[in-house]
Amino acid sequence: MAQGSDGASAACGHPKGATAAGQWERAIPASRQSEAPPRPRWGGAGGPREVPRAGIPRSTGSHRSRRARPGPSRVETGGAEDAVAMMLQELVARAAGLHSARAAVCFDECSGKPPAFYTYGTVLELALELTAFLQKHCDHQGTWGIGLYCYPGINLPSWILGILQVPAAYSPIDPDAPPTISTYFMKKSNLQYILVENDKVNKFQMSHAGCFSHNSSAIEHIGLTLFQMNSSNIDFSSEVDNMKSKCEPSKGVVNSQPGYTVCPDQTEIKSSEAGYMDAGQKGTLAYVLHTSGTTGIPKIVRVPHKCIVPNIQHLKSIFEITQDDVLFLASPLTFDPSVVELFIALTSGASILVVPNTIKMMPVELSAALFHRHHVTVLQATPTLFRQFGAHIIKSRVLSANTSLRVLALGGEAFPVLSLLKSWKHKENKTSIFNLYGITEVSSWATCYKIPEEVFSADFRTDFPIPLGSPLLGTKLEVRDANGSAVLEGEGQIFIGGEERICFLDDEITVPLGTMRETGDFVRVKNAKLFFLGRKDSQIKRHGKRFSIEYVQQVAEDLCQVEACAVTWYQQEKLILFVLPKDDFEERETLKELQKHLPAYAVPDEIVVIKALPLTSHGKVDISELNKIYQNHLNSRRRDSKLSDAEELWERLLYLWKSVLGLPCDYTGISKNAVFLYSGGDSLKALRFYEEIEMLVGKALPGLLEVILSHSIEEVYRHILKVLFPDEEQLMNPDNAVKRKLRGNSGEEFLGKYIKLTSERDLEIASGLIPFIALNRGNHFFSMNFTKSSMQSENAVQIGVEPLQQPSFLPSKTSDVMKSHEQGSELENRILTLENKANKNDHSSVQQIHAECNNSSVAEVALCVRWKSNTRKCVDASPLVIIPAKEEVSVYVGSHSHAMQAIDLELGEIKWEKTLGDRIESSACVSKCGNFIVVGCYDGLVYVLQSRDGEIHWTFATEDTVKSSAVVDPSSGLVYIGSHDQHVYALDIYKKVCIWKLNCEAGAVFSSPCLSSFPHHLYVATLGGLFLAINPVMGSKIWKSNLGKPLFSSPHCNENYVCVGCVDGNLYCYTHSGEKVWQFSTNGPVFSSPCLSSLTEQEIFFGSHDCFIYCCNMEGNLLWKFEATSSVYGTPFVFQSDDLNNKILLAAVSTDGKVWILNAKSGTAEGVDKLPGEVFSSPVVWGTKLVVGCRNDYVYCLDLYIAGKNNS
């Protein structure tokens, strides 16, 4: 077997073992072909299971001292030739015999708990138990494999070895993969048995209902449950049998002439004389995977031991692996480099480090685990995955002067440009860096090249090309042109194979020895070296010239302003460069630099700046996601559309009005006096209407949004005309422009099956309209009825500035009074600004507008009790804060004492108290008109109380307790609420009727429904684990998802996604169409509801019973987490205040009574106080006043202020 030095030196020159021109090969020694020695049984590897402890036991020797030894310090466990002839599990057993007491695997949750580890002895002991179990319970006659449905964990090596020892091939199945893909894979692979991780059983059964039957013989302490495919679903067996009978000798050969293996330096050899490898032979296969399917239907790839073992053995030699090494399991199990990572470690007596999948997406935490706690010495990754660390972490930890990393092997994508690599690598760094190349169809790697140390010297040229390197053991490479002829110099497609480097694709049963596989990758041959050019499908023809988009990416990566990038050929029309920028990035300058280094036909059409490169599950750039990003980018642009005249403007304006409000195209009932907010509009729809108009006219329209929110459609039209046609002497009257008769009534008809608002209804409500803003938990924001008429001077509004007020526009009662019409109008405009800047959702979060804060010093926030109100029993409900335009701000909250209180926020005085029929845990909401408060009760009633005095307006009876909090549709005024009777209800509180009710079929509705305006969906979560989207008009189900565990958390949505927490410890994120985008895992149940705020735009905040408050982004990646002193049940609240140095802050509570004020951007604590009781309520902040309920029977209002300032 070739030594490690061969791999390095041969890569720099003509490959050692190369054949005649056009062919590169590293042969397995002849004795490898002889009969393998008897395979030893596993034995003598038992021992007690270890108590988890921190870190992995390691020798005191460093990787540098190892490198300085005269000869390689590999662990030689027998003849290399014998080793190549063995199976994976036999190689592990042999290593375990020498190192039974050493740590084989370490699992670090990265949660502050000590890592768990198993020795080789324990790994083999557990594996043998699993093997015995499978041999007893599985009918393993003939060819078969066993599926493994799990996440990586401490037991993973034992599970894989247990399957291999049966003997059977292991087939990893990703629990997060779309069920359609995994079902196809399992059936196409003819998997009759699936081992499912115990805590994934519910998920597996829901995803593959009816396909598999449960085998009750689970191995509890090993953590697996066995499932068997139902006989009715085994529909690929006959196809495999048919394929076996029909299989021709040439099956799987991709040469230009069927039935022959074409070797440029040899005569043609008929495949019938060459012999075959048979997938049906017992013990042949090691594992079964599928390709990613990015270019079509995923291909099934069955990998024999004889194909992968030479890879493992040769790379161990090249990387000089010893028992002192720690390798990281970076690749997902469904990506074949994971096999290399696992078995390079486990066949050498080294350790493999495993972390949860979520940690792999957190650069700071991952780098700390790898290089601070566990001192990883060997890292294999895709270049894109490696870049996820970011330049700072790579320089300071990964490739620093004192890093633990000996070997960095990058593969699976084009190798990074040398200049980028040099910028990452500290001049004192000694890490050996390798370029790996291979394809899944000939698993796993085909070539390896060690980057010479001299290329990193300062004076070495940065345009040095990185070759693919030498073929690995048993591997043969061929380069062919389009006609199938060998390429000696120049460009061609690379083919990979070898005498026994063979895998079985899809339905192949036998494959001729020496089969070569087409890769779809193009290379340049120069001086017998191979240089990667790009994928066959990345070759594009533009402006008459053909080139690879990878070439554009390499040039762009070489620019100093670019951190990372990717290129797509969007719809075969536009070349788009996506850039993850550095701080000094300027688009124009970057384009100029590209023009200097690229021919004109290769310069990108457009540069799109992104925050992160989207990745596939295998750690490669996700091109389909990039195309979606660009499509969204296009959609958000203004369309350059010129209007011919004012008449056309009016027609287009009416069309947009109907489109945004969801009215039929032939609807003719739009009055020129119609006001958007009274016609079914809201802040989200107003913003959309505004954006559509700007796109229509092709220019910015200052002040338009305020006009839309408070004026008629005629005034909107005139405002646009003033901007478009400023020189026209007389603005056109819309009456003259209308081509169809307009109905002049002030009411709007909504044509849903169950809802029709008449002008009488509008007049009835309007007679008692109360302009207000309402806030409740999770930054749910609701604003209604602000019109200019409500701000006239004769009805002057009392406005003042509180001593610790946040924004200047907040209405409250103080001694200073502004009574002028102008000041009233200013208030209106500012409140409307508050509304339109909010998150684009009906129940939006407050976006607060401030003057610039000049005080940039870091200051601590202090909290003190302003007032407390005794409710006589626990307060678990969260407060509702209502800010009317003309009255004092009020807090509404219920208690276990049956009491519902309305409290003056400023003074803490009880304005009224109403005793209901039972305890109140439901949080109140306010009606569309502002005259009523709606709250659920344990007696099964939904109470509608008058907001001014608490008198009962109406009660509606459900059939069980109502803990759910209601939500109001600002368009229709309907109230939606859930009950423990498993129904959700739509109530018309004005007509006092139930419009519809829906049986959710899966448990009580504990949490609050969530209403989205676009699309118009109502989201409901149940204690049976069902998450539903409902049509709010019809009461019909749109889609549902069964999460399998109770949902106490209330959903919260923005314009793109809806999120909900689950007691399984996950926060789930869905699109509005019901597709699960991601799930974020914590270490405890999530009862907290997610908080989304436009103050932070892309962040989601929530708490968990693992005592952490989490902040993640819209991609599901952790931004920060803060450890509280107990579980976090309540929902956080985001706010900002001039009087608190204008910081964006987060209020959160833990169940031990602690009230935390955190920096929303960093997660650092700014202030804390403790209430004298447990807290399950959620805080609400208005100005600098925080209101929250406590289980000591009180509702508290806390003043927030900067420590040291006078808090009078």
Automatic annotation (TrEMBL):
InterPro entries: AASDH_AMP, AMP-bd_C, AMP-bd_C_sf, AMP-binding_CS, AMP-dep_synth/lig_dom, ANL_N_sf, Beta-ala_Activ/Resist, PQQ_b-propeller_rpt. Keywords: ATP-binding, Fatty acid metabolism, Ligase, Lipid metabolism, Nucleotide-binding, Phosphopantetheine, Phosphoprotein. The keyword Transmembrane helix does not apply. Signal peptide: none annotated. Residues 98-499 form the AMP-dependent synthetase/ligase domain. Belongs to the ATP-dependent AMP-binding enzyme family. PANTHER family: BETA-ALANINE-ACTIVATING ENZYME. This is Beta-alanine-activating enzyme.
